[in-house]
Amino acid sequence: xxxANSTLYRILDANLDRAREGLRVIEEWCRFGLExxxxxxxxxxxxxELAHWHHPPLRMARDTPNDPGTQLTHPQEAIRTDLPTVxxxxxxxxxxxxxxxxxxxxxxxxxxxAACKQMRYQVYTLDTQLQPRHRLQQLLDAPLYLVxxxxxxxxxxxxxxxxxxLKLVQYREKQADDDQRLAVxxxxxxxxxxxxxxxxxxxxxxxxxxxxxxxxxxxxxxMTMAVARQMLGxxxxxxxxxxxxxxxxxxxxxxxxxxxxxxxxxxxxxxxKAAVGHEYIRYANQHAPMPYYAIGGINESNLGEVLxxxxxxxxxxxxxxxxxxPTQAVQQMLKQFPQTSAPAx
Length: 345
Known about the structure:
The chain has helices at about 5-35, 35-55, 55-60, 75-80, 85-110, 110-140, 155-165, 180-195, 205-210, 225-230, 245-255, 275-285, 305-310, 320, 325-335; strands spanning about 145, 170, 200, 215-220, 235-240, 260, 290-295, 315. By secondary structure, the protein is an alpha/beta fold. The chain folds into 2 domains: about 5-65 and about 80-135, Ferritin; about 140-335, TIM Barrel (Alpha-Beta Barrel). An 8-stranded parallel beta barrel has the order 1-2-3-4-5-6-7-8, surrounded by 7 helices. The longest helix has about 30 residues, at about 110-140.
């Protein structure tokens, strides 16, 4: 049986390694993914500070061949679905390791414990700063956007679509009472996050806040974007529907994170709205500085035409909600998109 010092040193050594490794993963994303020299330098400084506390006696206590933890794994560790997931997993890894270091260092060196506590707070701040970039990158990586319509099988349809590879869902419900909307939004938000997908609430900022959704989508008659951002807090996405160049200009001035462009074809979802056709797609390509989603009557059969007109992302309702197999519908539509994504600006 090992003595107490040996056990303590091994715990400290393992978590110093864990924290330094995780910070390096985050640093590489800040450097090459975001091209943010300030965040890269912050990660490097944290790594160097941890290295200062990684004393030789701690390293010498390492016993990798006899460490039972090297055999432990979890299925979620084997696969990362996208770049933001990699970064988020390592942020959690660093935060957990720093907490372990803080607690056990109270026995080893109280100055080290205090330093690890301050580093943990710095990583929390870094996490908050990266959240907007994470969500925006997830948005850029999601060419297909499901806007839900009322359904008795809503949860089942959304989960089937997520199983097909869908990464962006908007909950749109105009008729149900608030209690029902809140309950459904909570369920769908948990479900989307289980599949590493973004969850957006249509119109209702209060519900988006209540369920900790990734953002809100606003129509032209809804609340101003400034108020929406104030209510949602930092790091959340705010989208805006547009049907003409004037509405797009408003969204640009508001600095919307993304916009809807349509209706491309006539659709019962927007009854009475004239189709804007492919011309508005071409206009968006020339004038929209943010990602946009072509929307309105788009389905598997006409998706190719929309992509040929220049759209890179589309939003659909009936093409998934009314599909015999939402999973297959998503898979078939995703196959038509070029397999590329842009880095977050």
